[in-house]
Predict the structure of ABC transporter ATP-binding protein.
Amino acid sequence: MHALETRELSVSYGDQYIFQDLNLSIDKGKVTALIGSNGCGKSTLLRTMARLLKPQRGNVLLEGDSIATLPTKEVAKRMALLPQGPTAPEGLTVLQLVKQGRYPYQTWLQQWSKEDERFVKLALETTGLTELAERTVDSLSGGQRQRAWIAMILAQGTDIVLLDEPTTYLDLTHQIEVLDLLFELNAREQRTIVMVLHDINLACRYAHRIVAIQDNKVFAEGPPEDVVTASMIEAVFHMKSRIIPDPLFGTPMCIPYGNGRTLA
């Protein structure tokens, strides 16, 4: 069974279709990276799979179940989404933010429980934020802040995690820190992770599967070594490049050189 599937999915903004009749399967227990040029529909696809956008036609299946028919809290117990550039209210502490991840489990009959406490504690430990729990989110560095948001979705306790550009606005050190954390979560807990990434080389390094989107459709999908080729880079990004093995990891490494210069 796949973690997520789209079947004949069509999504539009007004009269303009972003996707039409899109079929895509996300492997359970794997890391999948969505790549493509700006405006190609990566974030729209992620938001539709998370049920934040309603498709005009077609369906999204969450572990085999039509997501449109599931109660909101049931979806939130099975899948978490970290949007691009999330913001927290001023003065909110890390602990208060992470506790928000337990909202799907709160009812009139059952408020805060020992189980909630356990998940929050584990999320803080996993992301290395235990010592910063009482700090306000707005006082953290960029990397720490992003880890706090990831801790919140970990506290949600879902097997599927969607992240929209989780490394945006982070320097290289914090990008690697965040991606290492996500990779370790997948390796240790087999969580399904789907993320939109701009850096093709980091996508190849951390993802088991790459989905390249071009002109609002899936151009190619599969293991990085099958998808990331010079011809794909030219078709999807309109950029000439050379693809070589990453000297450290052996994954494809894209060296772009554009149209202004030629290779020696």
